[in-house]
């Protein structure tokens, strides 16, 4: 395996690299890779190095999730006869289309739904969601935002909004609900809220349960968007779950310490433990005390 530095054009050499991979300690292997990158290039000195590494971690997670999904789909197909699978798909599609067409009273809306179903996943709007006649939605990795236009002068007391883990109901009191359906994935109800903006727009903010996944639709029954066409915000450490973020921050800190000839986080922890032990045992001789880095 060889690593080529993109930042060190003055030295475009192929650097030999070998390291054993221990499944029980994958971070150890990753730290060795970063160590080589730090020694042979200026990549880790870039201000955007952390963001690029975070983006790489997220992309790897997305690829793993997609691979697992495809594997499950293949295993499911193997358990069913091909003709039965095709028949089940057609029956399911017809039933879904019939329910959605029945809900739509506007002929133009009916035709639009049919066209969207036939064309498959569609390109998302600028907010990474979709725009409909009665509402629009958008998303980032952490949250989903829904905007619903209402008559100007609408007060909050005229709104009915119920946000549950897997379902949303919202509309105006005394009228049919504008949205009533299941989410693409679960949300954290305690971290969700709604408000009236300028007395003419209901804005609903939903906090995703899984904050490493793009939603294909907001409410069940909507056309699916092509999640490969979403435009994520600039990568941030805050986008990651606490465990992954802590691991990435630790690796970046250790690499910077090594480049400056300073102790890593593990070495600092060991030294602190030794100092504490020495303070607790003043009568012992620690003149030859050593520890492995």
Automatic annotation (TrEMBL):
Ranges for domain CS: 130-219
One GO term (biological process): protein folding
Domain of life: Eukaryota
PROSITE patterns associated with the record: CS
Ranges in a coiled coil: 50-77
Location in the cell: Cytoplasmic granule
An MF annotation (GO) of this entry: unfolded protein binding
Cited CDD domains: p23_NUDC_like
GO CC term (a single one): cytoplasm
InterPro entries according to UniProt: CS_dom, NudC_fam
Function: Small heat shock protein required for the establishment of auxin gradients and for patterning of the apical domain of the embryo. Involved in the specification of the cotyledon primordia. Also required for normal inflorescence and floral meristem function, normal developmental patterning and thermotolerance. Acts as a molecular chaperone.
Protein name: HSP20-like chaperone
Organism, as annotated: Arabidopsis suecica
Lineage: Eukaryota, Viridiplantae, Streptophyta, Embryophyta, Tracheophyta
């Amino acid at each position: 395996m060889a690593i080529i530095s993109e930042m060190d054009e003055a030295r475009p050499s192929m650097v030999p690299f070998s390291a054993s991979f221990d499944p029980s300690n994958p971070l150890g292997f990753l730290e060795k890779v970063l160590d080589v990158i730090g020694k042979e290039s200026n990549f880790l000195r870039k201000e955007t190095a952390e963001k690029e590494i975070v983006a790489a971690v997220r992309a790897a997670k997305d690829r793993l999730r997609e691979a697992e999904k495809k594997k499950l789909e293949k295993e499911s197909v193997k358990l069913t006869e091909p003709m039965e699978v095709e028949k089940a798909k057609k029956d399911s599609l017809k039933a879904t289309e019939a329910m959605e067409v029945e809900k739509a009273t506007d002929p133009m809306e009916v035709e639009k739904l049919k066209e969207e179903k036939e064309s498959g996943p569609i390109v998302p709007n600028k907010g990474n969601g979709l725009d409909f006649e009665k509402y629009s939605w958008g998303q980032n990795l952490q949250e989903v935002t829904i905007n619903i236009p209402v008559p100007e002068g609408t007060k909050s007391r005229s709104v009915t909004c119920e946000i549950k883990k897997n379902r949303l109901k919202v509309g105006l009191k005394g009228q049919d609900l504008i949205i009533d359906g299941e989410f693409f994935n679960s949300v954290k109800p305690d971290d969700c809220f709604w408000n009236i903006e300028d007395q003419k727009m209901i804005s609903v903010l939903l906090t995703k349960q899984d904050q490493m996944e793009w939603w294909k639709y907001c409410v069940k029954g909507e056309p699916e968007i092509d999640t490969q066409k979403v435009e994520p915000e600039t990568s941030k450490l805050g986008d990651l779950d606490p465990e992954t973020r802590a691991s990435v921050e630790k690796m970046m800190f250790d690499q910077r310490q090594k480049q400056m000839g300073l102790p890593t986080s593990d070495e600092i922890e060991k030294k602190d433990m030794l100092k504490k032990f020495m303070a607790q045992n003043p009568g012992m001789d620690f003149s030859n005390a050593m520890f492995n880095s």
